[in-house]
Design brief:
Elements: H1 2-12, H2 17-26, H3 33-66, E1 72-85, E2 92-104, E3 109-117, E4 121-130, E5 133-134, E6 141-144, E7 156-164, E8 170-179, E9 187-189, E10 195-206, E11 209-216, E12 222-230, E13 233-243, H4 246-253, E14 261-269
Parallel strand pairs: 1-10
Antiparallel strand pairs: 1-2, 2-8, 3-7, 4-5, 4-8, 6-7, 9-14, 10-13, 11-14, 12-13
Length: 270
């Protein structure tokens, strides 16, 4: 009867490992060795099960928060592309300015935002704000891309987490990048990782640049195009509204060539 009472008492607090070990050492002289070993074995199995379950639960929560497409929406986004001559040369580089505004609709969440770069593309500046307050402690991570089968690849990724503390929280992310060769900046996608309420893409074409803008898969979307002549350049602005996430399209087609995008083809520098 005493052994049964002690066993039940130990099972009530399985997570207090230190306390449990002390009790087992104390009870070493009251319980048979075989029973004690069996008790330790059962407790060890229980801890492993609890640990694994907690790990799976946390992993599932983190994965859901980072791809919570039903909770996070892209309220407004803009991407500007400017072609500039490198001073003193005839070489052309591209300046890219991107702004994305997110909102958590239903619950708190944390998402990971990222941008790709390589030997020809440089991430100049990254910043973000939460509910209008700039976050000055931002420390982006820079890593090698691991989704390539090539023996060597210069593809890298810059990423960081953006937290939404509660329902209705908003975040604004800003990227500034420079591409050294315009031939390697030839595709701009309209869709994002989340549902997009509005996104604009502006391409400023200077008079000295011969550039073709090829449109792909735009007909089935709520799309608007505007042309503006400003100083010595023409600005083409595309606007898309209420667009589903890129993943939802890829789940249906399986081919990223079915996504809506622009192809920028540089022909000549005059």
């Amino acid at each position: 009867m005493l052994s049964k009472f002690i066993f039940l008492n130990l099972r009530v607090t399985p997570c207090l490992r230190v306390s449990l070990v002390k009790k087992l050492i104390y009870l070493r002289y009251f319980l048979p060795r075989k029973f004690l070993l069996n008790l330790l074995l059962r407790f060890s199995k229980f801890c492993r099960l609890v640990g694994i379950s907690a790990l799976l639960l946390c992993s599932s929560f983190i994965a859901k928060s980072q791809t919570d497409t039903a909770n996070i929406v892209l309220q407004d986004a803009s991407e500007e592309v400017h072609y500039e001559l490198t001073p003193g040369t005839q070489f052309v580089h591209v300046r890219q300015f991107t702004i994305k505004e997110y909102k958590a609709l239903k619950r708190p969440a944390t998402i990971t935002v990222s941008d790709n770069y390589d030997n020809l593309k440089r991430i100049d500046r990254v910043e973000y704000s939460i509910n209008g307050r700039r976050q000055r402690h931002l420390t982006p991570e820079y890593a090698q891309r691991g989704d390539t089968n090539a023996a060597y690849s210069d593809k890298r990724i810059c990423y960081f987490e953006v937290p939404f503390a509660k329902k209705g929280s908003q975040a604004k992310v800003k990227w500034t990048a420079t591409i050294q060769d315009p031939r390697y900046h030839n595709r701009i996608d309209f869709l994002d990782d989340f549902f997009t309420e509005k996104k604009t893409i502006s391409v400023a074409v200077p008079a000295w640049l011969d550039l073709d803008i090829e449109e792909h898969n735009l007909l089935s979307y709520d799309m608007e195009l505007q042309k503006e002549v400003k100083d010595d350049e023409i600005i083409w602005t595309y606007s898309i509204r209420n667009a589903q996430s890129a993943k939802s399209v890829l789940d249906l087609t399986g081919n990223d060539l079915d996504l809506p995008y622009l192809l920028l083809v540089v022909k000549n520098v005059q």
